[in-house]
C-alpha cells in the first residue's frame, strides 16, 4: 500500500496543478484578487472652509463643510456616507448622504455637520446598499474656534486682510485664546460650499473680483448658495477694477441683481485723501506722481443703497452698501490686490472699517472664557433664552444645596449610620446583608416618589417663535420670510422623538387650530439642537463626551433619509426621564405682507407716517426701531387697524435695551419658589439689536444667535417693526404629529423689515 501511494503521488500533484491552472484561466484568480481588494476606501477627509488642509478648522455651534474623497474599487460602488460628530451635550449626531463611486475612480462628496464640542472627532463611515460597513476613518487633527471668534472668508488676494487678526480690537481678552478674528481662504471652485449654510460660520466674505477665473467659476450653480447665504443674513463685500465691475454689472451676471450700485465712471487720480480720512490714516496711499484707477458708482433706485464714502477726486461714491434680503452687499471701486493699495500701511484699518464688525465682541469681563466653567458666568443672550425655555409652569426646580444635602444624608445612612445601628442597637453585624439593600431600596423609592411629585407626569414644551418678513425683498404680493423656532421639551419618560418644524399661516385668528403648511410647499426647513455660548458644564465646548445618553440621532431630509438636501427632521432624539432637550428649527418661505407702511423721514432721524395691520392677529407690544431711536406703541394694533407713528412714544434705542436687560439675571435664580417674570419677547428684542450702538453695563453679547441680529439693517436706515402675536407661528411636530396632550407655552415675535423711508 505504501509503495502504491508513493507511485501515484506525483500524478496527484500534477492533477492538482492542472486544476489550479484551469481555475486561473476561467477567472478564479481574478475573483480571489477582487475579494481581497476593498470595494471602496476613504482617501481624504477635509473639514472647514480653508483651502489649505493644514488650516482646517470648525467653529463650535455652526454648520461645517466636510469633504470626503472616496476611491472606488474594481466595480462601481453605490451606498451611503455617514459623518458623525457630537452635539452640545456630547450626544452623537449623524448626517447621511448617498454616494456613487465609479470603478477605480476618485470621487469627492460634500456634507455638513454641526459640532458642539471642542473634543470633536469627525468619524466617517461608508456603508453599501445592504447596510454593511465597508470603510471607516476618523479625523482628529482639526482645530476649533470659539463662538466669539469671527471667521472672515476670502476669495482672491485682497491686500491687508491677513493683518486683521493682529489688530488690537481683534485680540482676545483671554491670554490662552487665539485672535478673535480668523481669515479663511476659499479655493474656487472646489472649495465653494454647495449649500448656503456651509457659510454658517462666516461673518463676512470678501470677493476680489480681479482674481483670475473667479467670476467665471461663480457663474454656475456655485453662486446660488453664496447668494442665498447673503439673502439669509450674510455680508458680501466686492472689490475690483472698472473692467471687472463692468462684467459684474452685466445683466447676465449672477451678481447683477444683488448690487446696490452700478459702475459709473473710471478715474485716474493721485489723491486718495478721502479714503485715508475714512479710516483715520495719516499714511498716504499713493506717492507723488503716481496715479491709481478708482471706480465711482451710481446707486440703483429702489435697492436701499447707502453711500459710505464719496471721493472728491473722482466726484462720486466709491464705497456703497445696500440690503439684499436679510443680508447686505458692499461694493468698493478700488483694486485691493494691486499696488499702491496692497502696499499701504493702513490697509488693515481700511478693512476693519469696511467690514463693520463692531458689536461682535463678547461682553467685557474680568473672567476669561477658559475659567467660565468654574464661575458659572453668563455672558451671552442665548444662555438667557435657553434658561428661560427650561422653566416650566408646575415643575419645581430642586436647589443644588438640597440635592447635595440628600446625597450626604444617603451616604451617612449606608455608611456610618448602618454600621452604628447594627453594632450598637441590633449588635448583629451580619444583618448588613439585609439592612444595606433595604436602605438602598427605600431611599430609591422615596427619591422616585419625590421626583414624580416635583416633576410631574406630563410632557411639557416651551416655545418661542421669531418670524422675519422682509418687505423690501419681493414683488409686493409675496415677500421673503424666515421663521426661527426655539423649543425645550420636558419628557416624563425615556423617549425617542422624531422632531421637525413647519410654518403656520399668520392670517388666521386661531393659530392653535391651524394646520401647518405641507413640507412640499415650504422652501426650506432646518432642524437642529440649541446650545449656549458659555464654556461651562452643559454649554458648548465643555462636555468632553459626558452625555446623558449614548443614543445618537440623525438628521434626515424630507423626502429621502440619505439625501444631501437640508436636514429638516431630527430622528431618534433621546430625552431621558425628567430631563429637557433644547432644539431649534429654521424655515424659509415667501409670505404676503404683514402690514402696510407709509413712512417719511422728517430729518434728524425722526420718523413719521402710518402703519396698518394686515394680519389676522392682533399685534401686541409694538415698537418700530429706526436709526438710533425706538417708537413704542402703548396700545395693541388690531387686524385692519391703522395707527400713526406720532401716537407712539419716542426713546433712545440703547437706553431702551439697557432698561429691559436689567431684569435678565432673574432668569438664573434657582429658588424653586421664585416666579420669573422676564418676558421672552424682551429677550428677542435684545437679540434683535445686540450689536447696535454701545452696549451698556448689564447688556450681554449675541454670539450664538447672530442670525437674529438686525442691527446691520438699522445701519442701512431701514425701519424695523417688532410685535408680539398671540399663539405660535410654527408647528412643532413630534413623530410627525402636533402633540395635543402636552402642556405648552407658545409665543411669537414678528419682525418686519421695511424699505428706507422717503425724505420729507
Q: Would you give an account of this structure?
A:
By secondary structure, the protein is of the alpha+beta class. The protein folds into six domains: 2-36; 39-144, Sandwich (Immunoglobulin-like); 149-361, 3-Layer(aba) Sandwich (Rossmann fold); 401-450; 460-591, no CATH class; 594-720 and 752-759, no CATH class. It is 21% helix and 33% strand. It contains 14 helices and 35 strands. It has a nine-stranded mixed sheet. Strands 8-7-4-5-23-24-21-33 form an eight-stranded mixed sheet, with no helix packed on it. It has a seven-stranded mixed sheet with strand order 11-10-12-13-18-17-16. β19 and β20 form a beta hairpin. α9 packs antiparallel against α13 and α10 runs antiparallel to α11 (432-455). The longest helix has 27 residues, at 400-426. The protein is globular.
Give me the secondary-structure topology.
Blueprint: H1 2-25, H2 28-36, E1 40-47, E2 57-59, E3 64-72, E4 77-86, E5 92-101, E6 106-113, E7 122-128, E8 133-139, E9 143-145, E10 150-155, E11 181-185, E12 202-208, H3 214-217, H4 223-231, E13 235-239, H5 242-249, E14 261-269, H6 273-278, E15 292-299, E16 306-311, E17 316-324, E18 327-332, H7 347-355, H8 372-375, H9 381-389, H10 400-426, H11 432-455, E19 460-474, E20 479-491, E21 495-503, E22 524-529, E23 553-556, E24 569-575, E25 579-591, E26 595-603, E27 606-613, E28 619-626, E29 629-632, E30 642-644, E31 649-652, H12 653-661, H13 680-688, H14 711-715, E32 720-726, E33 730-734, E34 743-753, E35 758-759
Parallel strand pairs: 2-9, 5-23, 10-11, 10-12, 12-13, 13-18, 19-34, 26-35
Antiparallel strand pairs: 1-3, 3-6, 4-5, 4-7, 7-8, 14-15, 16-17, 17-18, 19-20, 20-25, 21-24, 21-33, 22-25, 23-24, 26-27, 27-30, 28-29, 28-32, 29-31, 32-34
Amino acid at each position: 500500500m505504501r509503495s502504491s501511494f508513493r507511485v501515484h503521488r506525483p500524478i496527484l500533484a500534477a492533477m492538482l496543478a492542472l486544476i489550479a491552472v484551469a481555475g486561473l484561466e476561467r477567472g478564479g484568480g481574478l475573483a480571489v484578487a477582487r475579494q481581497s481588494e476593498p470595494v471602496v476606501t476613504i482617501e481624504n477627509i477635509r473639514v472647514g472652509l480653508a483651502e489649505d488642509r493644514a488650516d482646517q478648522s470648525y467653529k463650535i455651534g455652526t454648520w461645517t463643510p466636510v469633504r470626503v474623497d472616496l476611491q472606488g474599487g474594481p466595480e462601481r460602488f453605490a451606498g451611503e456616507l455617514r459623518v458623525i460628530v457630537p452635539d452640545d451635550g456630547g450626544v452623537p449626531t449623524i448626517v447621511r448622504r448617498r454616494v456613487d463611486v465609479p470603478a477605480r475612480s476618485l470621487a469627492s462628496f460634500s456634507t455638513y455637520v454641526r459640532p458642539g464640542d471642542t473634543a470633536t472627532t469627525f468619524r466617517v463611515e461608508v456603508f453599501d446598499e445592504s447596510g454593511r460597513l465597508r470603510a471607516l476613518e476618523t479625523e482628529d487633527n482639526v482645530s476649533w474656534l470659539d463662538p466669539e471668534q469671527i471667521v472672515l472668508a476670502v476669495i482672491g488676494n485682497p491686500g491687508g486682510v491677513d493683518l486683521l487678526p493682529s489688530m488690537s480690537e481683534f485680540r482676545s481678552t483671554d491670554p490662552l485664546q487665539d485672535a478673535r478674528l480668523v481669515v479663511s481662504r476659499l479655493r474656487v471652485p472646489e472649495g465653494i460650499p454647495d449649500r448656503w449654510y456651509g457659510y454658517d460660520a462666516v461673518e463676512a466674505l470678501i470677493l476680489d473680483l480681479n482674481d483670475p477665473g473667479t467670476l467665471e467659476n461663480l457663474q454656475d450653480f456655485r453662486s446660488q448658495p453664496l447668494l442665498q447665504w447673503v439673502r439669509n443674513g450674510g455680508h458680501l463685500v466686492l472689490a475690483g477694477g472698472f473692467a471687472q465691475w463692468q462684467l459684474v454689472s452685466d445683466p447676465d451676471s449672477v451678481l447683477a441683481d444683488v448690487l446696490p450700485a452700478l459702475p459709473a465712471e473710471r478715474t485716474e487720480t493721485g489723491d486718495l485723501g478721502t479714503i485715508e480720512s475714512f479710516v483715520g490714516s495719516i499714511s498716504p496711499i499713493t506717492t507723488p506722481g503716481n496715479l491709481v484707477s478708482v471706480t465711482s458708482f451710481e446707486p440703483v433706485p429702489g435697492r436701499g443703497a447707502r453711500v459710505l464714502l464719496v471721493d472728491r477726486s473722482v466726484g462720486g461714491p466709491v464705497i456703497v452698501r445696500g440690503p439684499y434680503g436679510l443680508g447686505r452687499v458692499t461694493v468698493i471701486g478700488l483694486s485691493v490686490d494691486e499696488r499702491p493699495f496692497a502696499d499701504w500701511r493702513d490697509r488693515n484699518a481700511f478693512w476693519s472699517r469696511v467690514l463693520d464688525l463692531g458689536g461682535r465682541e463678547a461682553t467685557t469681563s474680568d473672567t476669561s472664557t477658559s475659567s467660565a466653567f468654574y464661575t458659572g458666568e453668563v455672558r451671552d443672550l442665548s444662555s438667557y433664552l435657553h434658561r428661560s425655555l427650561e422653566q416650566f409652569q408646575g415643575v419645581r426646580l430642586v436647589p443644588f444645596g438640597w440635592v447635595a444635602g440628600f446625597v450626604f444624608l444617603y451616604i451617612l445612612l449606608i455608611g456610618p449610620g448602618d454600621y452604628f445601628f447594627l453594632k450598637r442597637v441590633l449588635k448583629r453585624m451580619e444583618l448588613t446583608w439585609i439592612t444595606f439593600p433595604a436602605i438602598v431600596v427605600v431611599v430609591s423609592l422615596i427619591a422616585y416618589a419625590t421626583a414624580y411629585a416635583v416633576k410631574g407626569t406630563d410632557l411639557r414644551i416651551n416655545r418661542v417663535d421669531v418670524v422675519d418678513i422682509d418687505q423690501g425683498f419681493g414683488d409686493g404680493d409675496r415677500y421673503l420670510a424666515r421663521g426661527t423656532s426655539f423649543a425645550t421639551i420636558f419628557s416624563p419618560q425615556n423617549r425617542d422623538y422624531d422632531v421637525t418644524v413647519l410654518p403656520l399661516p399668520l392670517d388666521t385668528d386661531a393659530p392653535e387650530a391651524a394646520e401647518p403648511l405641507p413640507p412640499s410647499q415650504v422652501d426650506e426647513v432646518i432642524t437642529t439642537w440649541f446650545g449656549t455660548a458659555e464654556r461651562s458644564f452643559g454649554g458648548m465646548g465643555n462636555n468632553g463626551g459626558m452625555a446623558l445618553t449614548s443614543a445618537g440621532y440623525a438628521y434626515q431630509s424630507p423626502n429621502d433619509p440619505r439625501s444631501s438636501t437640508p436636514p429638516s427632521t431630527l430622528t431618534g432624539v433621546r430625552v431621558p426621564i425628567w430631563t429637557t432637550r433644547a432644539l431649534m428649527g429654521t424655515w424659509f418661505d415667501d409670505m404676503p405682507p404683514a402690514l402696510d407702511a407709509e413712512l417719511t423721514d422728517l430729518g434728524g432721524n425722526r420718523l413719521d407716517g402710518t402703519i396698518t395691520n394686515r394680519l389676522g392677529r392682533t399685534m401686541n407690544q409694538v415698537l418700530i426701531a429706526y436709526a438710533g431711536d425706538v417708537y413704542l406703541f402703548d396700545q395693541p394694533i388690531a387686524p385692519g387697524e391703522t395707527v400713526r407713528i406720532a401716537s407712539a412714544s419716542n426713546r433712545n434705542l440703547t437706553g431702551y435695551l439697557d432698561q429691559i436687560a436689567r431684569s435678565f439675571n432673574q432668569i438664573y435664580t434657582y429658588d424653586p419658589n421664585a416666579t420669573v417674570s422676564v418676558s421672552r419677547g424682551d429677550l428677542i428684542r435684545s437679540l434683535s439689536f445686540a450689536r447696535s450702538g454701545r452696549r451698556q453695563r448689564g447688556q450681554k453679547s449675541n454670539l450664538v444667535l447672530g442670525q437674529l441680529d438686525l442691527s446691520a439693517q438699522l445701519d442701512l436706515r431701514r425701519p424695523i417693526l417688532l410685535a408680539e402675536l398671540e399663539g405660535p407661528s410654527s408647528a412643532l411636530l413630534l413623530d410627525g404629529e402636533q402633540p395635543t396632550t402636552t402642556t405648552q407655552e407658545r409665543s411669537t415675535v414678528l419682525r418686519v423689515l421695511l424699505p428706507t423711508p422717503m425724505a420729507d
